[in-house]
Amino acid sequence: MHATIRRYEAVDQARTREIVKKADDSLLPRLSELPGFNGYYLIEAGNGVLSSIGFFDTAAHAEESTRVASNWIRSEQLETAFPNAPKTTNGEVVVHETRELVQA
User: Fold this and answer.
1) Is the separation of the CB atoms in 52 and 65 below 8 Å?
2) Could you report how far apart the first and last alpha carbons of the chain are, in Å?
3) Are 25 and 82 in contact (CB under 8 A)?
4) Pairwise CA distance, residues 6 & 19, whole Å
5) Model-level pTM?
6) What does the CA dihedral 86, 97, 102, 13 come to, rounded to 10 degrees?
7) Coil, strand, or helix at residue 4?
8) Residues 20-77: pLDDT tens digits?
9) CB-based contacts of 81: which residues, under 8 Å, 6+ apart?
10) Ordered strands of the 37-46 beta sheet
11) Is CB count within 10 Å lower at the N or C end of the chain?
């Protein structure tokens, strides 16, 4: 399994709610249709920082998700909300364990 982590800094905090809704409504469906998709999480870290982590079967699948996310930002006209390119980390997941998450 491979993961891709994106950290977006200086995100327009006035648009966080809009970004989250659009990510849920239109980015997540696009990512979940990609070959090798295993999961996606969007994290609001506060102070204009959003991070995401996606899990895929192969490195190529994970890299494709970065292309999809970049195209999504343009298609949703969110370039001004994300003024900086994300810091991206890709790699093989070498240790993991999961439990079913219960939403609060």
Assistant:
1) no
2) 28
3) no
4) 15
5) 0.85
6) -10
7) strand
8) 999 999 999 999 999 999 999 999 999 999 999 999 999 999 999 999 999 999 999 9
9) 11, 12, 15, 18, 19
10) 37-46, 49-56, 2-8, 87-92
11) C
Q: What ranges do the domains of the chain cover?
A: 2-92
Q: For residues 56 and 36, is the Cβ–Cβ distance under 8 A? A: yes
| Topology adopted by domain 2-92 | Alpha-Beta Plaits (3.30.70)
Sign of the Cα torsion 103, 9, 3, 93 reads: negative
Residue 81 C-beta-side C-alpha neighbours within 13 Å: 19
Residue whose tokens read 């506060």:
46
Residue 100 has pLDDT above 80, yes or no: no
| Residue 104 pLDDT | 63
| The residue to which tokens 């970004």 are assigned | 19
Beta bridge partners of 54: 4, 40
**Which amino acid, one-letter code, is at 28?**
L
The H-or-E segment that residue 32 falls in is helix 28-32
